[in-house]
């Protein structure tokens, strides 16, 4: 039964990825192993499951029906495995995570370190990317995302809020006096993200201002903006958690502290259609607790 479940899991990957080669890459096993699993299934059921050519791949009618039923079976087996794992003393397994580059590099090292102190048999696979990857297609368990959620196939748990702060180096401010008027920003050289033509700012009272900006450098990464600000190149509007260490050391100065960029929700998300393994479930619970009251509670605004 276990062997057949493994064959069905491979078959699902073939159907999901659109071919044997792609499925082998996603599963991290040899192409010959994937082909062997497919052949074994076709022998068991005595029916052709896929039509293949050098240019085209598609499921046969029988393959489509098998995929439909195998999804239910594999999910049932996953739920059973999760239930039984609750009775074991040591949790093990792989947790596959994707996160944006800047926030992932800031958050995940400490989060994973603290989690593995409790569950040392759990391992992780990290995919750091600013692209919002398809979790099912890429076989990813959980994702960290700095955005509002619009995908009904995902369950999202908000961890906190990212707020933009305007910063500049002391040397830059000595050469470019700031003054007291917010509009002064439109006259100063700034470091902007590629699509920014103006900054939308909000204060504690909820009043909004839109400031036209004069970018002298455009970047596509948060860390690049921070580094350029540290070098005195210009003013940067960057997430508070990115700027925090340099603000604490006075390498950067917080400008117009009554005003901030619009807040962006930061979520932990995972597929709603799948039952997570016990390792994934424990990681989700640990992460929520860490941001609520644990090792991550001061990283994001609540």
UniProtKB/TrEMBL annotation:
Family matches, as InterPro entries: LysR-type_TF_proteobact-type (IPR058163), LysR_HTH_N (IPR000847), LysR_subst-bd (IPR005119), WH-like_DNA-bd_sf (IPR036388), WH_DNA-bd_sf (IPR036390)
GO molecular function: DNA-binding transcription factor activity; sequence-specific DNA binding
Listed Pfam families: HTH_1, LysR_substrate
Gene3D superfamilies for the chain: 3.40.190.290, Winged helix-like DNA-binding domain superfamily/Winged helix DNA-binding domain (1.10.10.10)
Span of the signal peptide: none
Classification via SUPFAM superfamilies: Periplasmic binding protein-like II (SSF53850), Winged helix' DNA-binding domain (SSF46785)
Residue ranges constituting the HTH lysR-type domain according to the UniProt record: 1-60
Single GO BP term: DNA-templated transcription
Keywords: DNA-binding, Transcription, Transcription regulation
UniProt keyword NAD present: no
Family: Belongs to the LysR transcriptional regulatory family.
PANTHER family cross-referenced by the UniProt entry: HTH-TYPE TRANSCRIPTIONAL ACTIVATOR TTDR-RELATED, HTH-TYPE TRANSCRIPTIONAL REGULATOR
Name the record gives this protein: Transcriptional regulator
Native source organism of the sequence: Hahella chejuensis (strain KCTC 2396)
């Amino acid at each position: 039964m276990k062997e057949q479940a493994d064959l069905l899991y491979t078959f699902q990957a073939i159907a999901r990825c659109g071919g044997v080669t792609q499925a082998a890459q996603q599963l991290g096993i040899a192409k010959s192993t994937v082909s062997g699993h497919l052949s074994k299934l076709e022998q068991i059921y005595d029916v052709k499951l896929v039509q293949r050519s050098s240019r085209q791949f598609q499921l046969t009618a029988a393959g489509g029906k098998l995929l439909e039923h195998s999804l239910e079976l594999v999910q049932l087996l996953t739920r059973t495995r999760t239930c039984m794992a609750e009775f074991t003393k040591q949790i093990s397994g792989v947790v596959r995570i994707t996160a944006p580059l800047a926030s992932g590099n800031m958050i995940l090292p400490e989060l994973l370190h603290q989690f593995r102190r409790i569950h040392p048999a759990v391992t992780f696979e990290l995919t750091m990317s600013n692209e919002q990857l398809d979790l099912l297609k890429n076989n990813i368990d959980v994702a960290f995302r700095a955005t509002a959620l619009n995908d009904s196939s995902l369950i999202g748990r908000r961890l906190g809020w990212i707020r933009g702060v305007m910063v500049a180096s002391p040397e830059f401010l000595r050469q470019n006096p700031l003054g007291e008027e917010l509009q002064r920003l439109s006259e100063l050289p700034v470091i902007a993200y590629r699509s920014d033509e103006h900054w939308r700012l909000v204060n504690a009272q909820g009043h909004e201002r839109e400031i036209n900006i004069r970018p002298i450098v455009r970047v596509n990464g948060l860390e690049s903006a921070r580094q350029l600000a540290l070098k005195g190149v210009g003013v940067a509007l960057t997430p508070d958690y990115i700027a925090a260490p340099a603000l604490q050391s006075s390498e950067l100065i917080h400008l117009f502290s009554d005003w901030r960029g619009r807040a962006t929700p930061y979520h932990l998300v995972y597929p709603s259609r799948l039952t997570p393994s016990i390792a994934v479930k424990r990681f989700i619970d640990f992460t929520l607790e860490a941001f609520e009251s644990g090792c991550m509670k001061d990283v994001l605004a609540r």
